[in-house]
Amino acid sequence: MIVACYECPKCGHEMEDVFVESPASEHCPLCSKCGKRTIWVPKPPNVYVFEPYVEEHLFEKPVLIESKEHLRTLSRERGVTSAALE
Model pTM greater than 0.85? Predict the structure, then answer.
């Protein structure tokens, strides 16, 4: 899925739309606030970069969590859950 970002040149309102295929930039929607034709704003995708950290609350002793997969494996082994995996 592709998230296309649009901005209204008149009022500055920003909107997003989700597409299965690449959206046509020449078919921008109307602004939902003022009704003027929006312009397509190319933006990089939101990417979450996992930063290693010390988990002090889920396990008996503090543990260095090196990746999301590492946290998932440790959580399964110890029968605990973490909001970071959702």
Answer: no
